[in-house]
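Researcher: I'd like a structural prediction for the single chain below. Treat it as a standalone chain; there are no partners to consider.
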Amino acid sequence: MTDYTLEQESPSSDAKSKAAWDAVVSLALGVFGLVTAEFLPASLLTPISADLGISSGTAGQTVTVTAVVAAFAGPGIVIGTRSLNRRWTLFGLTALLIISSALAAIANGLFLLLLSRVLLGIGLGGFWAMSGALAMRLVPMDLLPRAMAIIFTGVSVATVTAAPLGAYIGSTLGWRAAFVLAAAVGVLALLVQAVTVPSLPPAGHAGLGTLAAVLKRPKIRIGLFATLFIVAGHFAGFTYIRPYLEEIPRLDVDMLSLVLLAFGIGGFFGNIVGGMITERSATLGVVFAAGLIAVAAVILASLGASGMASAVAVTLWGFAFGALPVSIQSYITRTAPDEAESAGALLLTTFQIAISSGAVLGGVLIDLQGPIGVMSFLGVASLLGASVMVARGGRQVQLSQG
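Model: Treating it as a single chain, here is the predicted structure.
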C-alpha cells in the first residue's frame, strides 16, 4: 500500500482554484452549535436536576453520554454513509443538532434528555470524523490549515461562551430556553450550509478494512500516538485545574473564573496562530503546541504558588492547546488524503480514548500526589507527544510543505 507522505500532497480533485470559503464558514457555524449544545448542561445542572427531579450527578452524565456516543459514532457515520453525497450527510448531522436540542428543551424526564444527548453525540462524532475531509474538498490542499483554523474558531468561541451564556439564559429565561437557542443556531447553520456547500459525491472506500489499512500507515500511527500522549496529559490536568488553582496559588472564586476565561481566550488566539504555523508545517504545529503546553506545566509545577505565575501559565496552556486541534487534524488529513474520512474517524476515536484515560489517570495522580503530580504528568505527556513527532515524523517532513 502506498505510504502517503506530506511531501506528496496535491490539491484535492474536488477543490477548485477558488476556495469555497463561504462553505467553510458554514461548517464553523455548525460546529459552534454542536459544541455549544455539548457543553450547555455543565452550566445548567442545578436547574435541570431540580426541574426533572434527578440528582446533579445524574444530570452531569448527560455530558458523558454525548462524549461516549461520539467516540463510536464517528467511525460508524463514516462507514454507514459511505455511499451518500457528503453534502446530504452534513445536512443530516446538522439536523441532529436541531432535533437533539429541541428534544432537550421539551424533555419531561431523564429518558428523553438522554435520548437527546445520544442524538447530539451521533451528530458531533460524525462531524468531527468528517471535518478534515470536508475541508479538504472545499479548498486547495495548501489552504487546508487555514480552513481548519476557521472551522475550529467555532469550537473556540463555543468553548468560551457556552458555559457563561448558558448560565445567564438559564437564570433569566430558564434552562429550556438555552436549548431552544442551540436549536436556532442549528437551523441557521443548516440554511447557510444549504446555500453554500456544493455537491460532494462519495470519495474513498470507508469500511473496517480501510480503517485497519489506514492505521498501518507509519505517519498515521505517529500522529495518533502523539495525540494520545498530548490529549491524555491535557485532560488529566484540565479535569483537575480547579483543585490546583484553589490549593496551590489559593485563588478565590472570582479570580479562578477570570483565569479560566483567560484559558478560553488564549485558546481562541492559539487556534489562529496554530493555523498559520500549520500552513508551513503541520508537524511543526503539533510540536509547537505540545512544547508550549510542557512549558506551561513546568511553570505550574515549579512556580504555581504565585497567583500571577499560575495565571500566565494557564493562559499559555490555553493558547497552546488551542493550536493543537488544527495542527493534528491537518497532519492526519494531509497524510491520508485518499482516505481522509477514515483517518479522521481514527483521530476522533483516539481523542476520545485520550480524554477518558487522561481523566482517569488525573484522578489517580491527584489522590496519590496532589495537584502538582497532575501538572507534572501534563508536562511529561506533552513532551512525549512532541518527541514522537520529532523523532519519528519530523525528519521525514519538509517544513515548507508540512
